[in-house]
Design a protein that fits this description.
The complex is a heterodimer of chains A (394) and B (361). The radius of gyration of chain A is 29 Å and the shape is globular. Chain A is built from 13 helices and eight strands. The two termini of chain A are 46 Å apart. Chain A is an alpha+beta fold. In chain A, 69% of the residues lie in helices and 6% in strands. In chain A, the strands form three sheets. In chain A, strands 1-2-3-8 form a four-stranded antiparallel sheet. In chain A, strands 4-5 form a two-stranded antiparallel ribbon. Chain A has a two-stranded antiparallel ribbon with strand order 6-7. Helices cover 72% and strands 0% of the residues of chain B. In chain B, helix 12 runs antiparallel to helix 15. The longest helix of chain B is centred in the last third of the chain and has 32 residues. Chain B is globular. The chains are: A alpha+beta (394), B mainly alpha (361). The interface between A and B is large, with 55 and 53 residues.
């Protein structure tokens, strides 16, 4: 009976009124249209490329680049390949984004907390900072910092020295660093070992606290281990103290660590712009924890640092992490503006490559692929971290 | 009775009310805050007077570049002597009243739209007419107006044009993408997700490169699009993805009951969306849409990189003139103030709107 009824229904429903079939039809049509559009664009492109005699494919990656790059984390010269030039650019993007993100989170947190300060003056100043920096395009800020650098700072011969061993000039900032010594490698290794030990201690301490209620001074012991182990290594190598002081040779500094004005301008612009957004994120996160939580924590006798560590922060972080992730991604994407002030980031090297080889389609595709990779991997990491701090509900 | 009159007689101590009380409560409540206040005041005293001196007392306001180099303070002459070029770029000098009038129309429309009670159909028509009028004013070629090629457009009108037209065109596209992403048809959903996430994952600059270098390759021979339109396409594609996410937030805020109610009175998909869902969903997302307009306004500055003469590029070409070399700080500060005024008034407006909307009508 039932099947019979259904049968009559389906017989009655015309084809174009059956939602399922209609959905299939719509999707089919959409795909056909997208496909046709793609076919049209690709065929046009192929004709145009042939006319302009532009090669296609990624073969150019193995050809000699014959352009210099100002700063590089890996050995590079004009004789290296385009592929290597692009790798240098990608590493430079990672460098500026990573340093930028770390400092931005620190600065943004400080300003966000200052915005909530009971001190009227401090809170007003933080508000002004946030309002002003959010409302000025980041590109303009980059240009401004770069202009400050090359217009107000003197030439290397008359470099300003704000502190011992630091020289500021329009060619960049030169820092004094310790002279290379085998001890440094071992100090770094012991530092890593220290980190692992502290991680294990923390796990053990937490377990013990859950079982017995005894609190282990993890923070103090941890700090002692992380600083102490490399220090002992340093003592063991006979306290090498030689410093690599930058010296003026000809028109520029040699030795030490020189940071280029482009890098500093880019970093400053990105940090100052993004920190304003991070400050708002942090402020909203802290405000989302209700006042009663703090009062309850005080009432059971926790000291102020513990109130923040155990009660406020874990709850605020849940609100903070997702928007903070998108700010970190914004900073990474905005680092592509480096091309405007001449810092050799990925977009900048890819742009030079495109201009030299004429293979713009491959170039733009590479730019998009690399940034997509950065975006997806950062958000994957942050999603993992977010799951860790998220509310675990029964 | 007696008690209450007695409490009225007892006034709060002098130090907890008035100016003194305010200062004590807000600036010197506790050791940390007192130190912070003193430190901040010291820093302000270190920085603000010299800055004030540089900007207002020792500064040159209306001189030649040479006289500027002798002045100890800021050289605002770089703005006052070149403001026509900075604001209007290569637009023919005698015709610059036209972009000026176009900007006035835009500001007038924006100012009139500010009040939510005026959001009715006639206003939409006024906007359409206004936008066309602006375009015709800029282009010319009728009523005896000299035609001006769009390659000569520049400065502030170009910045405003790119952001306003960008958002206007991106909005419907964004709504369609958001509906597509919420669609029950998996094929359309996947296409929309790919588009949105792809665009949101890459920087705007890569899209600008694409539109300025690759777009000409996509088109059949003989058809060329001018540079401004190409940049506009990139900005529209970029903004649409972000608008789509904003609108999706509004769609997710709609309760199931709304869809079911619309279905139960026999509305089809199109009518459900047009009459029931979208009017409510779009109202919720008005404040984030205004933030999106602010971003679009700031992002248009990126067209500098593909060598369009927006207000940032015109300023830079003034600065590359030997007479005005070395006054970047002043010029950029002026631009920063310009952008700040635009963005700040919009963000203030968005906050006001948010309050009004959350209060309910």
């Amino acid at each position: 009976m039932r099947s019979f009824k259904n049968n009559t229904l389906s017989e009655k429903t015309p084809l174009w009124l059956d939602p399922k079939k209609r959905a299939i039809f719509f999707q089919f049509m959409t795909f056909v249209m997208v496909g046709l559009l793609a076919y049209y664009l690709v065929s046009n492109t192929l004709v145009n490329l042939e006319k302009q005699k532009i090669a296609s494919g990624f073969g150019f990656l193995n050809k000699e680049s014959s352009f210099e790059i100002g700063e590089s984390l890996i050995p590079y010269s004009a004789a290296s390949t385009y592929g290597r030039a692009l790798l240098v650019g990608a590493l430079n993007t990672i460098k500026v984004s990573f340093i930028g993100i770390v400092i931005t989170i620190l600065l943004g947190t400080i300003i966000g907390v200052a915005r909530l300060s009971t001190n009227w003056l401090v809170s007003r100043l933080a508000a002004i900072y946030i309002e002003v920096m959010q409302n000025i395009p980041v590109l303009l800020q980059l240009f401004f910092w770069y202009a400050i650098f090359y217009e107000t700072l003197p030439s290397p011969q008359e470099a300003i020295s704000p502190g011992a061993g630091i020289f500021m000039s329009n060619r960049g900032v030169a820092f004094t660093i310790p002279e290379g010594h085998p001890a440094h490698l071992y100090m770094f290794l012991t530092f890593l070992v220290g980190c692992v030990i502290v991680y294990l201690i923390r796990r053990w301490a937490r377990k013990r606290q859950e079982k017995t209620g005894q609190i282990f001074p993890t923070f103090r012991v941890g700090t002692a281990i992380i600083i102490g182990l490399p220090f002992i290594t340093w003592l063991g190598f006979g306290t090498p103290l030689e410093m690599d002081v930058p010296k003026l040779v000809g028109f520029n500094f040699e030795g030490g660590l020189t940071v280029s004005p482009e890098f500093i301008a880019l970093l400053l612009g990105l940090i100052i712009y993004t920190a304003a957004y991070v400050a708002e994120v942090v402020r909203a996160g802290i405000q989302s924890v209700s006042k009663g939580q703090r009062e309850a924590a005080m009432a059971i006798g926790l000291r102020p640092p513990l109130v923040i560590n155990l009660v406020i922060l874990p709850q605020a972080l849940r609100v903070i992490i997702p928007p903070l992730t998108s700010q970190m991604l914004n900073l990474t994407k905005n680092s592509s503006l480096a091309v405007a002030i001449g810092y050799p980031d990925f977009v900048s090297t890819a742009n030079t490559t495109m201009n030299q080889t004429g293979q713009s389609i491959e170039g733009v595709a590479l730019i998009m692929a690399v940034y997509l990779f950065f975006s997806l991997s950062t958000s994957a990491f942050m999603n993992w971290y977010n799951k860790k701090v998220a509310l675990v509900e029964r | 009775m007696e008690q209450s009159s007695q409490t009225a007689v007892l006034k709060p101590p002098r130090t907890s009310i008035g100016v003194v009380g305010w200062i004590r409560n807000n600036l010197f409540n506790g050791m940390l805050n007192s130190t912070l206040t003193l430190l901040t005041l010291f820093l302000l005293w270190q920085f603000v007077p010299p800055l004030f001196r540089w900007a207002f007392i020792d500064s040159a306001w209306h001189t030649t570049g040479q006289a500027c180099k002798d002045a100890a303070g800021a050289c605002w002459s770089v703005i006052s002597m070149n403001y026509r070029f900075i604001l209007f770029g290569f637009y023919p000098y005698e015709e610059q009243w036209r972009p000026f009038l176009a900007m006035l129309i835009l500001f007038g429309l924006l100012f009139y739209t500010r009040d939510r009670t005026r959001w009715k159909k006639p206003l939409a028509y006024a906007w359409i007419i206004g936008l066309f009028l602006m375009g015709f004013l800029m282009l010319g070629g009728f009523f005896g107006l000299k035609p001006v090629d769009s390659t000569q457009w520049g400065g502030l009108p170009l910045t405003l044009l790119l952001s306003v037209f960008g958002l206007t065109a991106a909005y419907p596209l964004g709504v369609i993408l958001a509906l597509g992403r919420r669609s029950r048809m998996p094929g359309i959903k996947v296409l929309c997700i790919i588009y949105i996430e792809l665009i949101r994952g890459v920087p705007l600059i890569s899209l600008l490169f694409m539109s300025s270098i690759i777009l000409p390759l996509f088109l059949p021979e003989g058809i060329t699009i001018n540079k401004i339109l190409r940049a506009q396409v990139a900005i529209i594609m970029f903004t649409a993805a972000y608008i789509a996410e904003v609108v999706r937030g509004g769609l997710q805020g709609m309760s199931r009951g709304q869809y079911e109610a619309a279905e139960s009175i026999g509305l089809n998909y199109y009518l459900t969306m047009r009459l029931v869902i979208l009017p409510q969903a779009l109202k919720i997302v008005i404040p984030p849409t205004v933030s999106q307009l602010i971003s679009a306004f700031k992002d248009t500055s990126l067209v500098v990189i593909i060598a369009l003469f927006d207000v940032l590029k015109t300023t830079q070409s003034v600065l590359s003139n030997p007479e005005w070399m070395g006054f970047s700080r002043e010029a950029y500060v002026f631009l920063a103030i310009l952008y700040f005024l635009g963005c700040f008034s919009m963000s203030n407006y968005s906050r006001k709107l948010e309050k009004e909307l959350s209060r309910g009508d």
